[in-house]
Design a protein that fits this description.
- By secondary structure, this protein is mainly α.
- 51% of the residues lie in helices and 6% in strands.
């Protein structure tokens, strides 16, 4: 393949003039200097390396293992440095979710207490007693428990 300058010469030299003495004549009054390295011809030699076997380097194996070990140590160190901040970030998210759950449970407890108050009200109890035809027991069948004693054993608490 010819040099790039030769290609330009063929493209732009329409009259077919040849280069003489390092200059080209396009007209008699104009002289153009020659391109640098115009006379150099580049030859590309094809090289076949399919039969070449790489020679083993005993030091390369140790260098590779040292590099792998140092990279692993650097990664472990980086994780150890970043782990507490990541843990605190996750703990913050967990605290916020627990606060939301606490607020939800407080609302639910308030709702349930309101329902319980409505269901256990004396007016509702009288209404249920009338609907189910309950009657008050006679005074002879009412048993009063001692206020100072234990309810489960029906005895007095030790020390009183």
């Amino acid at each position: 393949m010819a040099a790039l300058a030769n290609v330009y010469n063929r493209l732009f030299d329409r009259e077919g003039q040849q280069i003489r003495g390092g200059a080209r004549k396009t007209e008699e009054s104009t002289r153009v200097r020659a391109f640098a390295n115009e006379d150099i011809y580049f030859y590309i030699k094809r090289i076949d390396n399919s039969g070449v076997v790489r020679e083993a380097d005993p030091k390369a194996r140790g260098v590779c293992w040292k590099l792998i070990g140092s990279a692993g140590a650097a990664v472990i160190l980086l994780i150890a440095v970043l782990l507490p901040s990541a843990y605190s970030l996750l703990a913050g998210y967990q605290i916020q979710s627990l606060k939301q759950e606490q607020a939800r449970l407080a609302d639910e407890q308030a709702t349930l207490e309101l329902q319980e108050t409505q269901l256990v009200s004396p007016a509702r109890m009288e209404q249920l007693a009338k609907e189910q035809q309950f009657i008050d027991p006679p005074a002879q069948k009412v048993v009063y428990l001692n206020q100072g004693g234990a309810v489960a054993m029906n005895t007095e608490i030790a020390g009183k």
